[in-house]
Description:
Strand order of the largest sheet: 1-2
Radius of gyration: 27 Å
Shape: rod-shaped
Amino acid sequence: xxxxxxxxxxxxxxxxxxxxxxxxxxxxxxxxxxxxxxxxxxxxxxxxxxxxxxxxxxxxxxxxxxxxxxxxxxxxxxxxxxxxxxxxxxxxxxxxxxxxxxxxxxxxxxxxxxxxx
Length: 117
């Protein structure tokens, strides 16, 4: 009489559930970290854009004189003082505006005029 041996190949349902649970925990940890990194990158991009616009506005005032608080201030800066109009990194946010010489934040939650901490 021949004895049948059970093959121990493959995974049990419990082992698969444990692996899925571990992957779920890792994803639950990774998503908030990714979102925080993305928000930081957007904020820093917005700060860099604000500094670029402020520098171009200061160059405009130095070269042309007068005030940069015009309605179409960005139109005065492009292309002579800044190559292209910087785009806000936050999707769907309004464009940068200049009011009384101050660059208003675009929507990435940044402060206006030089407070880049």
